[in-house]
Amino acid sequence: MRITLYALLALSAFTLATPASAAFYAFHVEGKVSGFSGEPLGYANLQTQFSVGQDVAITVVYDGDTAEGVSGPNTAVYPGAISSIDGAIGGYTFTRAASPSSNTLDLANGTSVGDELTAFVSIDGDPVGVASADVFFTSLNDADDTVFPGTFLTGAGEPPSLTLPLDFTQFDTADIALVGFLDPSFGEVNVDFTITSITNQAIPEPSSLALLGLGGLLASKRRSFTYRPVQKVVT
Fold first, then answer.
1. Least confident of 33-47, 48-62, 173-187, 201-215
2. In total, how many domains does the chain have?
3. Is 82 domain-assigned?
4. 8-46, pLDDT tens digit by residue?
5. In angstroms, how far is CA 173 from the centroid of its own chain?
6. Is residue 218 part of a domain?
7. Residue 127 placed within a domain
8. Could you list the residue range(s) of the whole structural domain that residue 173 is in?
């Protein structure tokens, strides 16, 4: 009973401390390594770790309540929107950098080239030879220009009336998809990949996770409790 009371108090404190506006969403891309780009002498080093045809899987989590930064009549930039990344190329893994120097979701409602979304964020991962993990960069495109609604274009000089989250499954191509490395001698060298699938993923809110944890705690306590009647001692 005492543990249950403490757990309820802890949950109440956590709920009060958790911002009510936090709304996290994710999209997951899968694909295959298609080649390398940059200085050939530089990406030759990457070919010791990566090869054409390797599987690529990347999950990007972003904050749907990120405020718009720079915007125009047909663009919107959400700085700092990407909260985490879990990526793998074959057996190589990477995550979002702890303090990313680059971190944006950029949206563009194209009038002739289609709707476009760009995700660009600094990453951390093991070095490959002398090259250090640098960025994840993808530019998704919908040639039919149907992802973003017409109200996205609200007039010259006005910000777009578009909010996150987005349905990433509507994008049909990727103009750019790469994981970049920084070679001290040859600069940026990249592992390029083709995207074969894009899916949306739901992210539980922190308070929901806390409730699940509390439910497990109460269930375990209930299972472990054994009733022992009090015996009177007669003298």
1. 201-215
2. 1
3. yes
4. 444 444 444 444 455 888 999 999 999 999 999 888 989
5. 19
6. no
7. yes
8. 26-212
